[in-house]
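Hi all, posting the design record for the shared folder.

TITLE: backbone redesign
STEP: 1 of 1
STRUCTURE INPUT:
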């Protein structure tokens, strides 16, 4: 590690001001940033921790929407998001207890790891990502592998999830990292069925629109018979081939629909 300045503001306004410093970086749970710094792949001069901002923590349900503060840990989501059981199950199986008690939903979404779980939930549930500057629909937020619509210094202060009629997340676990080798989140929303896939595509999380159309016509797993995902553009590594991941998308989607 190297020398850097550490700041822990108590308000969003103070955090935004601190992030205006040259080479400053927001710090959520640090589950990705700290290892990256240790490997010298990133070297911010100032770390601005968001962990002390009370306004960015907690889970609240009102008017058919669940709002989760951007600095809320995975463990707290798993313990307090009962209005969306699929989200409870997702959060409760991220990493191990150490990761779940440090990592945050805002940090996960901002990082947009191609195998992370929360991006699939946000996309399938048609979430709104709230920042210190604006509100961004999940469909407009994710921008390829590790890419998002966030601008420099912009902070995810909360995530708003409209309560679905039903939802389910199926994850094929990569046992070493506990990331999703492939994961599929299916949600029956007021606007229809939404299917989001993580861990499979080189472009990161995406919606499987063909499956959505089939399920909107017939909301049963049998509606997916005959549908397949092309292996082109799928991740291929020592854990699984592109064809393997493409097949998993179909298998997991059927499991999620059956579980609904």
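Okay, here is what came back for every position:
SEQUENCE:
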């Amino acid at each position: 590690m190297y020398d850097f300045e550490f700041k822990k503001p108590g308000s969003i306004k103070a955090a935004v001001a601190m992030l205006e410093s040259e080479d400053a970086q927001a710090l959520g749970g640090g589950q990705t940033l700290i290892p990256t710094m240790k490997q010298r792949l990133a070297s911010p001069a100032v770390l601005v921790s968001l962990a002390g901002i009370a306004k960015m923590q907690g889970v609240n349900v009102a008017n058919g929407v669940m709002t989760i503060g951007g600095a809320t840990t995975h463990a707290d989501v798993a313990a307090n998001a009962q209005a969306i059981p699929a989200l409870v199950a997702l959060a409760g199986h991220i990493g191990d207890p150490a990761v779940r008690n440090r990592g945050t939903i805002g940090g996960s979404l901002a990082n947009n790891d191609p195998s992370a779980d929360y991006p699939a939930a946000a996309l399938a549930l048609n979430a709104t990502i709230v920042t210190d500057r604006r509100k961004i629909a999940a469909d407009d937020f994710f921008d390829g592998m590790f890419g998002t619509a966030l601008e420099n210094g912009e902070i995810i202060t909360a995530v708003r999830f409209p309560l679905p009629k039903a939802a389910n997340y199926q994850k094929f676990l990569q046992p070493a990292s506990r990331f999703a080798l492939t994961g599929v989140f299916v949600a029956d929303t007021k606007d229809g069925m939404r299917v989001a896939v993580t861990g499979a595509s080189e472009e990161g999380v995406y919606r499987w629109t063909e499956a959505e159309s089939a399920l909107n016509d017939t909301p049963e797993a049998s509606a997916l018979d005959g549908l397949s995902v092309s292996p082109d553009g799928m991740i291929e590594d020592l854990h699984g081939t592109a064809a393997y991941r493409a097949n998993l998308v179909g298998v997991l989607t059927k499991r999620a629909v059956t579980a609904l």
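COMMENT: The domain at 5-49 is CATH 3.30.43.10 (Uridine Diphospho-n-acetylenolpyruvylglucosamine Reductase; domain 2).
Let me know if anyone wants the other runs.
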